[in-house]
């Protein structure tokens, strides 16, 4: 039994039993991967997968037990390598970040650029997915950290959640919209009469947007949803409805639109950096956290990860109050 065989086994499971896809992910050939799988099964004396013809159909009961242990072994091997790399002050590697489009497009660029300036040999891989899929990427080991937002409390206990910043939503509309020139503050009753364009998560029953309307005895008219804030703005411009989106998604180039504050209408949100507690972080990962959430003491983060100690973090700054990290000159 080898680490390569265990790595191939996990890759097959994570690829939905698609050997071709698994081989691509581990940079192996399909025949080579199949051969290693057969050698592992021959050594163990039982099958790890149920076959249907030449395809894998399911994981056997014994295979599930082996998979669980294989993941633990590979995780500990990764931890040993991380410890060694940190002790050698290695400045190269990769950082995989699972997050949403809004965070990837509007919140992360400055921190990633600062990380690149400090660690130019670290490659960063963004995994933009739907809101409800971010933590699943972290749990499955496909990401080193996650950046996710919540409107109530901390994220599910997948790892160590570090508060990065707080933010509110805005109501976005074309300049010629009747509400754009309104002097009085918007009310939810005003929005309930209008078609809304917002994030995919607003379709969920537990959506904070829906809950806010329900508390007022109202129901939102969701005309369109998207996981991409730029798409929301595009369809607001196209006249499909009034947009409800994160304030950081409104940029200087959006001057053809009017953004009205919704601080008094919708609950405040918090963006979190989530780290796996069972993984030894590389120094560049901690550097990213320091850049993205500079109010957190790096030593406290390291201590809590090492000791699993209870964490009491300082209050996260609001998006409008955060220090602005300059982006490097593209020239």
Automatic annotation (TrEMBL):
Top-rank lineage group of the source organism: Bacteria
Domain HTH lysR-type: 1-59
Single GO biological process annotation from the record: cysteine biosynthetic process
Key word DNA-binding present: yes
Gene Ontology MF terms: DNA-binding transcription factor activity; transcription cis-regulatory region binding
Coiled coil: none
Keyword hit for Transcription regulation: yes
Pfam family, any one: HTH_1
Keywords, in A-Z order: DNA-binding, Transcription, Transcription regulation
Family: Belongs to the LysR transcriptional regulatory family.
UniProt-recorded name of the protein: DNA-binding transcriptional LysR family regulator
Species this protein is from: Fulvimonas soli
